[in-house]
Each structure stands twice: as structure tokens, then as C-alpha cells.
Request: fold
Amino acid sequence: AVSECFVSSFYHNVWPIVDGADPRLIKDTLLMHHYIGSKTLVAEVDGTVRGILVGLCPMDLAALGRSLAAATKMLYRLTTGRYRLNPLAKKHLYQSYWSSLAYVYRHPSSRAETLLLASQKEYRGGIGRALMDAWLAEVRSSGFPNATVGTDSTVSWDFYERYGYRRVREFDFDGYKYSLPAEKVKGYIYFIDLGQK
Reply:
């Protein structure tokens, strides 16, 4: 159900992976986010996952160990062909991984970050806000004064502005050059001061 939620949110920019690789790749990517993060929240409607948020606040040694183990397993599956990527899926995967490094080196100083927020399109209209409310309550209770999130112009970036985040970084992002070849994509990093929310 979490994979279906992710695909519903991001199919338009990750379709080469969805259509050209074993579904296990999406599941392992989501597990990697879960292992890196310190908190995974899900929103259910009628017992089915319709939204997910993974937050990091900050990574401890146990999470680091879990994420390294998951990364090793993914790397093994990639190098041995277990994900059965077609040529386009392989190009898209490597392009998106390398391009995502732009978020790392442009990231402002913050110890709390939203790593992933997704909700199924048919269930939007409150799920994202409920997940973000719960996550930022966790951040506040942990004593952190602010939080960040990285996103891009191909998704609902305006959600963060309506929520109260302010854009602090904007840059060209070429991670989707195979899935959205005609689109000029911008990467965004948002920041929220929790003392003012």
C-alpha cells in the first residue's frame, strides 16, 4: 500500500523506474527512507495507507547502521541485476541519484528534515497537513527550533508555502531528464521556524 501511495504521487517523474524495473526497487527505496529516518508516519483511510511521511530528527547510530545495511543490499541487487532495470530505467535511476546530491550540498543548517511526503491523489485535501502537523509536533517535542524539506517544481511544492515554510534555496535540477525531457525543473529547499508556527 505504501508503494502504491508513492507511485500515485510521483509516477509522472519516476515512470521509467515504475514501468522498467522490478517493483522491489520502489519498495527497497521506501525502506531505505524509513531506515534513514527517525520517524515514519502513515495516514490510513478505511484501513489502507493513503499517505506517508518520513522525517529525520537527527540520525542516530542505530539508524545509520540500518541504512548502511539497506544500502548494501540495494547495491548488491543493482550490481547483480536483481531489479531487472531496462536501459531507460537504469539511466533514470543513476541520473536521479547523482542529481539528488544537489540537495545535500545546498542544504541549510537544520537537524530536522522531511525526507519524504506522499499522499495518493484521490485522497488529497488534508492528509499531507495532518502528517506534517504530527511530524512537526515530534520535532518541537525533541527540542529542535526549525525544520527543512527538499522538493521540486514537478510536485505540490506550494503545499509547503501554504503550510508556513519559506523557500531558502532554488536551483536547476536535472534528475528527471529522462522522465520529463521537455520540462525545466527547479529544485527547492524550504525552511520553517517552529517558534513562529
Summary: The beta strands are 39-45, 48-56, 113-119, 146-152, 166-172, 186-193. Helices lie at 2-20, 24-36, 61-79, 87-105, 127-141, 158-163. Residues 119 and 125 are 10 Å apart (CA to CA).
